[in-house]
């Protein structure tokens, strides 16, 4: 209620911490009344009302000029209460139809473009001996579109010094493009701990550990940006769960807290190649430009004392008004690091990143030298069980953690690491890896979020906040070109002692982001699978095979063909995500094997008579051999799963002229014992009779209830997977294939392994005990084979165990299988037998 007659123009209104109408509230017996006049009293009252078991009416008496401030405090408190309710709701078991209508959006599509931008100088991660006159950064820009029209952009930019490259990440991106279409995205995604990891598995069927760090970072970036656009907010506000609109903030004074929240300080990065005086001159120039923190690479020179001389020269030239960080990238032995520390002990380093090669020596280095250290590469491999692994580094001598989101595996992991650092009184420094302005703008938003999170942590612990952190985003100075026509702007602090980036400017760049098409090399919108039929005659029967193909027109002239063979009850459709991934570099073909899917069998000798046929491994191998001759003049690589793996192994060992190598996924070479073969053949005949008598759906229920599928039953799309097995045109032919292709009727290939000269890759799931043991036994047999090495003496047989997966490893963990297949193909190309 406003009292316009009073000189102070007092305003009064009511606030309650619970969702109860004022009428009901006034009637309640447990309601308490608070009257506040100052900002401090208001904040205290709000905290009290949030944590008390009773309801409160808060009456605010204020002057008109204070209303904007009070309104902002009330709005943030209300939003925090709403977010708290959303978090509670997100943990409840909410019916799917409620989630669909209230909390979930759907992905319309995702596309990517390969970019190539020129840099002004070589990256500091590249040795200075590089003789090139031009330097480039390559990566992918993701465009994620939601069905409501919201669009988010992400950047995937792998580093050459890590275990992923452009081909690796593009293969994963193609698989994700296929899996993500139509996937639901919760609008609560940024609010929940571990939510993105859960989303990857529950909505895409991707094990979080199997996705490359840079791919996950770019995907998270695109999703978060899309959600921010949908909500009409900045990414920082999305993460903070609160936002101050520009209209409201216009009425708020620019006090120190607001100033800290609106800009992010930047640390300059120095290319430390050159003499100590040259480097010191560069540092002095950066200091004049406004940088108060610089970082330079060490351990590139012939000995640590030369690096120390550079730092000493900088101190002599500039003094101690600038903070200095050094980065050794784990290149020094403990002795070399001690030598460097002794020479710079009076140079007041803010910290040195990764001074020693062995992680267990870093605390010892801090204790012996007294020099503060920071973690960087040490945390790069901590993609699982982060907090337990970080707990080793609580030592106060480790004062900072340098976090590269595209290396640690995205913002969920980065936020967890940062919060751990902040809770242990360490700096959480966000660092870029020479990405474009797209990533830099997101990192600025993220750094702003972390700084406000740190403020909340300090308030909760009644601690005074430390000065702002200079984040490692000075790589913008390397960008001669950019992925957007409007690059990110930097500014000098009003006092002239800091170089900062406006959080608002970074938000505007993201909101108005447009790709600079001049730097795009090519784009990909998901490849259409080509389908056709091929007829093959074999032993008086005609086999009409359903074929699916990816990469046909790109790789027609290349002798790099992979043929995928499914397991029992499967079809060629099972391989589509993997085929789309590998079609980057190979022509990928899958086949509906005889008796399965849409493949058909006809009697050529007596077309009017009843079709009587048998489907044995020899017949299937003969049919496939003729198919290969039909579709390609060269040799092929076979990739088979379970039943298809047995066929692939048989062909690699006995039809070797057209087979360049084989990938055996959860397969076996058959049974040695004659009695066991008879028992197994009888068991499979019994299953075939059950299929004919009770129908396919009843058989599927029985089949997938077995212990072999324990792991697969935990897959979020297990129901859809089983449903896909129910589509076979001829159940009678399927039952005959089940009998004829029984492992009990397959010839034993154990002795053939001892003569094998073809490259073989065995892939098994960690939880598939039976086939894991079989794979080990096959590798043992092959190790006794004198022809198990290529011309360079390298072994041509390998076994890969995929963690947290069972028998259907290619379905449970497709990204790991894609990576293994890709490396196998590269090895074949580089070391032909």
Short description:
By secondary structure, the protein is α/β, with parallel strands linked by helices. Helices cover 41% and strands 18% of the residues.
Q: What general form does the structure show? A: globular
* Oligomer kind: single chain
Please give the count of helices.
Answer: 31
The CATH superfamily of the largest domain is known as: Alpha/Beta hydrolase fold, catalytic domain
Secondary structure class reads alpha/beta
Query: Which range best describes the helical content: under 10%, 10-25%, 25-40%, 40-55%, 55-70% or over 70%?
Result: 40-55%
Percentage of residues in strands: 15-25%
Number of strands: 27
What profile does the largest beta sheet have? 9 strands, mixed
CATH topology (level 3) name of the largest domain: Rossmann fold
Distance from N terminus to C terminus (CA atoms, Å) equals 88 Å
Q: Overall pLDDT, averaged?
A: 84
CATH class value of the largest domain: Alpha Beta
Uncertain regions spanning at least 5 consecutive residues: 1-29, 91-102, 242-260
Overall domain count: 4
**What is the CATH architecture annotation of the largest domain?**
3-Layer(aba) Sandwich
- Gyration radius (Cα, Å) is 32 Å
